[in-house]
Amino acid sequence: MGRAQKLSEASIRRIWKQHNLKPHLVETFKLSRDKNFVQKLKDVVGLYLNPPDKALVLCVDEKSQIQELDRTQPLLPMRPGVPARQSHDYRRNGTTTLFAALSMLDGRVIGDCMPRHRHQEFIRFLKRIDVETPPQLDLHLIVDNYGTHKHARVKAWLHRHPRFHLHFIPTSSSWLNMVERWFREITDKRIRRGTFPNVKALVTAIEQYLENHNQNPQVFVWSAPVERISAKIAKRKEA
User: Fold this and answer.
1) Given this model, what pLDDT does residue 63 score?
2) What is the pLDDT of residue 222?
């Protein structure tokens, strides 16, 4: 830019700083085109900020295609001044799908690994949630718009289990489902840093992480009201 405008590098930097411009940074975004965006936003945020009495709010989703990656060379442990190191190349030997339900009450996670994520597996996971939650409480599940969650057999199962209530987030709004925050935790702290010789070892590592998490669960708190979110989205559209 300096050469193009015949200015010094210092002048360019001073102009950038004066106008708070950061050309070295790039952020990504995607605006939802859901026709019922506001309605769904109010529904989900309402559950976060004002949950119903005698009920549990669970954020539910699947982390699909988790790859079992076996590094081509052994992991080098960290040393003073040197971080742990692992080879950039790896072997793929299979995948698993992690179904997870994050409780907004206490941060505990109900989880299960399955080889696929069809409606059959989703119903199986719903049955597990049914068993592992107090039977006297209604269950409000926040889910995305994946076709599995709307399958006819899923709807039939939900009809037979009236304490289950599904709340769909707007399309292209995964940030609204708090279980994604927990998925980031397990990815950064366990999956991405691990080396697994087979899928069984990968599943075992995920189950151990789940067990350790639930011994001292972290509560994820939603604080943003609908008005603040709507204002940010409106500003983004103007940009």
Assistant:
1) 94
2) 93
**Using the 8-state DSSP alphabet, how is residue 193 labeled?**
T
Contact 139/164 with Cβ under 8 angstroms?
yes
Residue 111 to residue 83: CA distance in whole angstroms: 31
Measured over the CA atoms of residue 128, residue 132, residue 134 and residue 140, the dihedral's sign is: negative
Which residues lie closer than 8 Å to 238 by C-beta, 6 or more apart? Answer: none
What single letter denotes the amino acid at residue 9? E
Task: Say how many CA atoms lie within 13 Å of 187 toward its Cβ.
Answer: 13
Place of tokens 């790039």: 26
Domain layout of the chain by residue ranges: 35-74+84-238
Query: CA 109 to CA 60: how far, in whole Å?
Result: 10
What sign results for the dihedral spanned by CA atoms 134, 205, 143, 217? positive
Tens-digit pLDDT profile for residues 146-192? 999 999 999 999 999 999 999 999 998 999 999 999 999 999 998 88
Q: Looking at the structure, give the CATH architecture of the domain made up of residues 35-74+84-238.
A: 2-Layer Sandwich (3.30)
- Give per-residue pLDDT as tens, 26-60: 765 556 778 899 999 999 999 999 999 999 999 99
Which residue's structure tokens are 């309605």?
39
**pLDDT at residue 2 greater than cutoff 70:** yes
* Helix (H) or strand (E) segment spanning residue 128: helix 119-132
Please tell me the pTM assigned to this model.
0.80
